[in-house]
Amino acid sequence: MLSFIHAGDVHLGNPFTGLSQKLSPDFQKKVQLATFTALNRLLEFAVDQEVDLVLFPGDLYHGADNSPLIQEHLTKVLTQLNQAGIWSAISFGNHDFQQGQQVHPTWPERVLVFGPEVETKTITTKSGAKVSISAFSYTNQHHRQSALPSYPVKQAGVDYHLGMYHGVVGQEGENYAAFSLKDMMAKGYDYWALGHIHVRQILNRNPVVAYSGNLQGLNHNETGEKGFFLVSDQDGQGLVPEFYPVAPVLWQQVEISNCPDLVTLQGQLNAYRWEQPTLVILELTGQVGPDIQAAARFGTLLETLQASRKSTSDYWPVKAQVVTKAANQKHSRPGLPADVDLQAAIRRVVQADSIGQWLSDQAPTFIRDYFYSEEGQADLADRLYQDLVEGGQDED
User: pTM for the full model?
Assistant: First the structure.
């Protein structure tokens, strides 16, 4: 019997770049501590459930910043897992690749840290099961070769063989260690814990090849519940993942139709019972009152809604827009084939490589860092889409 947690993309210390500085102090603190709180909840669950192992397949840290606060918090969590007899397996991904080259405090006894070459480490659980884990860490932001050829086939003489892999399904030469699902399953492992994609998804069920998503949504494109997989061998039927949410702050898209005026809109938002602290992406559809349209046109709608929020409310609007009929159409601009998803096409183009070509070397570091981040790229893609689809509609 084996039970473990698969927790990809923790991004400990993520600063939530771009959120308004007008957040109320209590809400701001919840947001700033969100990734730490999510990791604490994972710790409590792991100890309570007496799991054997926690897998962190890349991007455990948000970046190269190895601040004392971040390092102290992680060390405390790993120490408490170790004291509970729980192993931790860590590999570094494209966000925290530099962590593998930095000096860290002495890791607790039951912490396995994987280097730049594929390694296989074997442990014995409390119940006596022998478990092998194979993984590697990034040494650069981009890893343009599949690492799968270096992964061994399932080890003989072990009860379970687990793989950790930070990457994407794709073609050789693409960024982020692109791999073939067929090649991955050919290794004969009992479970593949994937990292990098912040969307929870199971690519294959027997054996399971899965992304757990991240513990805490980091931007407005990462809506809904976030957490980890508890994986266990249920009645000898193989390793099966079960999702557990732990994100203390939710990003949630809210659609309101046919709102007659700002007063009604403000009342609806303030009267809604939010289950937990929520960052709201608001879309107004249908017939929208003229004062709302004017506020959206002049760029004051979001600030107005933020200012009218009750101080006791557990939500904060981060984006508000009036969605026109044209904006809902995938090929609203003439000249595009009917089967082209314009928004998806823009997001494929807006990547770190292309942004690096567009940005001047003289741009301030904080601007470059923002547009190299996933949040900055998503924001740029959304703005380009809105300009292309909605541009010129008020020209008359």
Answer: 0.80
